[in-house]
């Protein structure tokens, strides 16, 4: 049964069109009533095919207004209300949407409205622009078949590029919604392989640096489903944008054990590991240069998070160059830190605990947590892997880690991570346990309390050194 309210309003609209010199305000008033009716799914479905004829006439009139140099207040109100009606009528209803998409007058009006208002700066014009974007957003949510049309217009006409640089953040948010919902495998390939696609990625990350909009984060996460993201897209971004990508990766990896809706391909972790190995060689040169370590520090944190995920353990444990480089880097910065006060020196004073500003300054240190995470990664990739345990021993990594086991405000919980790393290095490895026993026998480590905290007991019996160990912890 046709809803009388819709029938009456459409009849009234037809009557207005048949009158001479009907004011735009009269059309606006009628459209406002129809738009209100379109908020309800029941009345929305009552828009029969013949009801669209007067809307087509209004759209044609709207297109003539849009080409004018100066649009009056009344004309702007008319355009805005017609866009609202189209947006509401297409919400969740394929029949209405298909009619709009397949009607040249209506779809042309929608596209031309969008392009017309992009450069405008008045608040009412920005509202009209937002409604235009929402109209295409409703199209995407109502039908999968609308994706090619929306993507073709927004991508090929550089609409995405213009909108994602708009000064109004709500415009960017609506655009990100359209961008994410228009993604297909083919469209993602455009992001990866074209200059225009790289510019869109840059604009998205620029927006996220200003405001953490969920649609933008979802877009980045979708791209991270591709294992070639590092090779194709990552290097095209400035440093601050790359750091944002790394933050998103790390956050998702932290939650991956509980949330299986998002995962990062193993190939992407492998590519990140290779990039980390390229960058980490510069860290030891920081003492006498202005090298920016933030990217390498973030990559290390990600590898630490990945090293406790079952999906990535084998990738990292099988990378002997990763383990060797990590141990050698730890040795380098630890020795440099002992040469005097420099960027690698530890901070063992406790005064930062009662001085909030000093504590904040320490947290902003370029290598904050780096040394701790080197030890964390070593311990994790050695867990249950004798080959890696043996490699660390041959690199003299065991006494190195023991020597790092001191309070350092720049590396919170470094003592605990050293303890875990030593426990993982000694697990079922008699050769490594003998190293600890030998160190104690020669008196190089006199802190038996520290050894006890590690689950290690050393005692002498008949002139021989014996070592007992408690059950070992797993990766963390």
TrEMBL record:
InterPro entries for this protein: ARM-like, ARM-type_fold, Ataxin-10/CTR86_families, Ataxin-10_domain
The record's listing under SUPFAM superfamilies reads: ARM repeat (SSF48371)
Q: Which UniProt keywords apply?
A: Cell cycle, Cell division
Q: Which Pfam families match?
A: Atx10homo_assoc
The record places domain Ataxin-10 at: 370-467
Q: Which GO terms describe its biological process?
A: cell division; neuron projection development
Record keyword Cell cycle present: yes
Function in brief = May play a role in the regulation of cytokinesis. May play a role in signaling by stimulating protein glycosylation. Induces neuritogenesis by activating the Ras-MAP kinase pathway and is necessary for the survival of cerebellar neurons. Does not appear to play a major role in ciliogenesis.
The entry sums up its family as follows: Belongs to the ataxin-10 family.
Task: Report the protein name in the record.
Answer: Ataxin-10
